[in-house]
Amino acid sequence: xxxxxxxxxxxxxxxxxxxxxxxxxxxxxxxxxxxxxxxxxxxxxxxxxxxxxxxxxxxxxxxxxxxxxxxxxxxxxxxxxxxxxxx
Length: 87
Known about the structure:
Layout: H1 7-12, E1 19-20, H2 22-29, H3 33-41, E2 49-51, E3 54-58, H4 59-68, E4 73-77, E5 80-84
Antiparallel strand pairs: 1-3, 2-3, 4-5
């Protein structure tokens, strides 16, 4: 039987907004902001979206980019995409 999380356990989980600042986006993937900048320059991470003068990274785009690191790639199949990864 699956255990339910207690309220204090839910509060301990990290909250990531949909739009991440540069610093949060870097933390989200576990690197420093300067390494994140280098990953963007090298095409490993997406470019930010401009929102009222702010630069924000879409957490979903960052997730996909992270999934594709180290040899992963996508294949279009019908309406969606299938993510494939090399071993």
